[in-house]
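#help-structures

NK: newbie question. if I give both the sequence and a SMILES, will the prediction place the ligand too? trying with S-adenosylmethionine
OV: yes, paste both and it writes out the complex. here, I ran yours:
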Amino acid sequence: NEEGRQAALKTIKGYQWKKKILFAKEADPVVDPVTAKRKNEAEEPEDDPKKPKLSAEESVVNAVTPLAHLPYEEQLAMKETAMKDFLTFLTDKFQSNIPEMRKWLNEQRSANDGRCISLESIKPSPIVDGYRNKCEFSIGKSREGKEKIVGFRIGQYKGGHTAVASPLPCKNLSPGSKRVVEHMQAYLDQSELRYFDVVSHEGHWSQLTVRTTERSEVMAILQLHPQDLSKEDFEAEKQKLREYFTSGPGSSSGLTSLYLQLVGKSLKEKGFQTNFYLVLGDTHVTEELLGLKFRISQDAFFQVNTKAAEVLFQTAGDWAEVTKDSVLLDVCCGTGTIGLSLAHRVKKVIGVELCKQAVEDAKVNAKNNGIENATYICGKAEDRLPSVMQDISDSEKVIGIIDPPRAGLREYKIKDKGYMAGDNILNRLCRPVSIRYRGTPFRLTKAVPVDLFPHSKHCELILLFQREDSISDSSEVPAPVKGPSTKAKNLSTAGNEKPAPLSEEGQTAAAESQNKQEDKSVNPGMTEGAVDDVKEAEMKDEVDAE
Ligand SMILES: C[S@@+](CC[C@H](N)C(=O)[O-])C[C@H]1O[C@@H](n2cnc3c(N)ncnc32)[C@H](O)[C@@H]1O
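OV: that's the protein plus ligand as structure tokens.
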């Protein structure tokens, strides 16, 4: 917020670092890519006369499951091509940012169709229809003007196009979600409260989230803007919902848990102390994944396709070659799924997660599954990882699994291997050794897409990065060209070329040129990037002191 920004500016401005005075100025934040994409889409004329006018049903299917009209094999082929393009893009990035990699990249490119490694065949989702265990539906007005439709938005905000259409034709919805949508629609139809209008900000009902599990549990979270409702009005609404879904027409909805979630301004002043109010049933749902049971809180993250997530985690574990002497860092661990599903194969799991409730879930999940070698830390990974790593001795085999990658993660702290995406972080992983980046560089050695989202254009991509000195001689991946190393004597001779020892000046120059490259990629307006840079400066100071 503005207050924080001003405090940061005050702290940094005039700070003396290495006999230089730091200067800081306000910068405009760079547009978030998702916002930019939405803006571009919004600028496309929606009422283009050349475009065939689609029915609401066609529009919703198109928007949510744009590949649903294709056989699944064709969908997979399209995603595989998209991931090959991504690998080519990544290879180009390596090529332009890391000169030390060029010789190796050229050899690899000619063997792999322009890419630094070959892409393994996409792993399909074990279930193709009805796989989504979580859906968020909007509550709005249909194109025809019918109010309180529970569904997906088909219009764009521009020009007030905010129409919502029924989600029932979408193939990815689970049968449990569809049932709840139908029952909630019936409830809202008879409710006196209106839908929340995203343009005027008037009205009450705004969103319905449904979570379903393999064990047929169903949780619904109905979002309400209280506006001028009093505490008593709210309690009355809660009571109405409870009766409707326990003894009324909604009793056949299959709901095992129902929450009301309050959203909007000044809730505390209106007397509402929390956002979530349990209306009926259990506080959590429990999902089964890889033979373990996972408790999931109403707002904690869980992979939306449980069966395909099993394929994802199993593959990640196999590739990471986790063993009984590994310490597994589950970074951004959510409810602990990745770490806990691999806990029996490693010495210790350490999970770091921002969301307090998810951390609580992860701890309960470890306990409920009889897992004693997992610990969980609540906080920002970028803040907490440095101290976590300090407590791990250098002789330990550390494997980091990061899903998803976050700007600001301290990639140099991942000692052995890591999974991540996001080209900036990937670039830095493969950087040559310098004062800034200790340990041998990483190499991308494997890549495989896993389809978690049939009928949509998305999929997950697992990338395996290994430290050069941990790539075995027998590896199918050609030996990488090594960069300069501060720990040359510790490097294995897996590569053909021995690392050239660098003078102190050479090492400093390498670090600075790396810094310059990164300055271009660091977004000056983003808090995370700025904080990261200050931390980098501090870290560099530490290294210099050493
Ligand atoms: C996509 S979920 C993945 C969860 C888990 N890795 C999995 O695969 O089930 C991302 C998680 O990262 C957490 N998260 C986001 N930013 C974070 C940060 N800076 N540090 C730690 N956790 C973060 C979110 O709260 C969320 O639970």
